[in-house]
Each structure stands twice: as C-alpha cells, then as structure tokens.
What does this fold into?
Amino acid sequence: MLWQVDPSADAPLYEQLAASVRAEMAAGRLARGERLPSAKEVAAALDVNLHTVLRAYQLLRDEGLIELRRGRGAVVVAERPPEQARLTELLTELRYEARRLGLTDHDLATLILEGRTP
Amino acid sequence: MLWQVDPSADAPLYEQLAASVRAEMAAGRLARGERLPSAKEVAAALDVNLHTVLRAYQLLRDEGLIELRRGRGAVVVAERPPEQARLTELLTELRYEARRLGLTDHDLATLILEGRTP
DNA sequence: ACCTATTTGTCCGTATGTATG
DNA sequence: CCATACATACGGACAAATAGG
It folds into this structure.
C-alpha cells in the first residue's frame, strides 16, 4: 500500500494519512468494497500512534469515502444498507417537521447536500 | 450555562456536550459572536477530560456552528430562529445516525428525494 | 518590542468497552 | 468462547496562535 508520513511536514500526520488513502482511491488502486489495513497495522508499519491512524480513518468516514465498523475494519464505501430503524424514524420526523415549516423534500435534500442547517 | 453529562447514558460524552451547546443555541441563549467557556473550564466544571470537551467543540466546528481559534476560544458563528430548533435538532441527529450506519449525505438526499425510507 | 498566560491543536500512551467474525 | 478492530475516555506533553500587560 506504500503510504508514508513525514513528521517534519507542515500538515498533521492524520491529514497526511487521509491524503494517502484519497490518492490511492483516486488512482484506482483502491476499489469499492476493498478493505483497508487495520489501524493497528498501519500504526505499526509507519511508526505512528494508533489514534493518529484512527483519526485519519474517521476523517475519511466523515467525507463519505470509507465505512468503519467495529471488528470489521475500514472498507471503501460501497453499497449498504443494514438495519436502519433509527434512521427511518429520524427521516420520518424530519419530513414532518420540514413540511410544518413549509420546506419541500427538495429543500431538505439541498440542506443536507450543502452540509448546513437552516 | 448549566450543561450536563451522564456517563451512564447511551450517547458518548462528547456528543452529549455538543447536544447541550446546540440546545442552548436553539433556545436562543447563545447568540452569534458569543464566546463559549474554554474547554478547560468546561472540563473542570463537569469533571470530564479536556480532550473530551475539545472533541465536542471540534464537532460543533465541523457542523459550522462555532469557530475555534487558539488562544481565543470558541465563538458562536451561526444564529437560528427558535421555530426551527426542532428541525435543526432532527437534521443533526439524522446526520449522526446516518454516519453511524455508513451512509453519506448524498445517500440521505437520495432517500429523501425518492420519498422512501430504507 | 517583549514577555507571559491562555487556549486550542496535535501526538503519544494506556485502559476499557463493544461489535464483528 | 475467543481474537480482532474500531470507539470512547482518560492522562501527559509539547507546539502554535492569541491576547494582554
């Protein structure tokens, strides 16, 4: 996988790590559904702290690039969906509340995609 | 400011802290430009670790609600009408739940636009 | 201009919890 | 049951930016 970090660089280590993964994905060397090495392995290989790798992974998750699950590891985002009871509940309530305020589904979708709240 | 955390609760401490701040803002008790107490103060007052508070603050920053600067502290950026408090709350929870399930914002937007629930 | 205290940012370490396989 | 792997929380240390004297 040949990632690398430079402790003397300007960018923080976790950002360098995340950038490495992004580059791999952009270059097509990491396909959907593929599993990333465990944070522990990466930490040992690059001689950085486990938390630093986990932070990079969580950043990538927040960006929607990978999926993290306990005991399973990090997987390049593919298709899902598992059990989503809570999500369904929230979606229903959100639609209700949005309508009450006169917002359309399109408005909602826009809000979410723009990553902001009204 | 009367925030509170419950170590035995289901939600993680940093999420509880962030929720407290969101509630303050939604209720209009935290206006734009106002400064939040320093992470150190909050940590001491609630008897939680400094890093836990910083994580909550960074989460709120990622949500665009506050601005963080070294030596300066946390300042409220956003301002939202009280009548939209519930919608904001639901949106935030929905994003949290979706992320937990590995869903992206794009997935969420699609779900809403397609008018279905997973 | 200088120094100091404050405050967040990052990194490391350790421990424990929880879901997965 | 057991090993793996991420999640959270605690702690310590130092760096960097800011504010104030």
Notes: Chain B touches chain A through 35 residues (CB under 8 Å). Helices of chain B lie at 13-26, 39-46, 50-62, 85-100, 105-113. Residues 85-100 of chain B form the longest helix (16 residues).
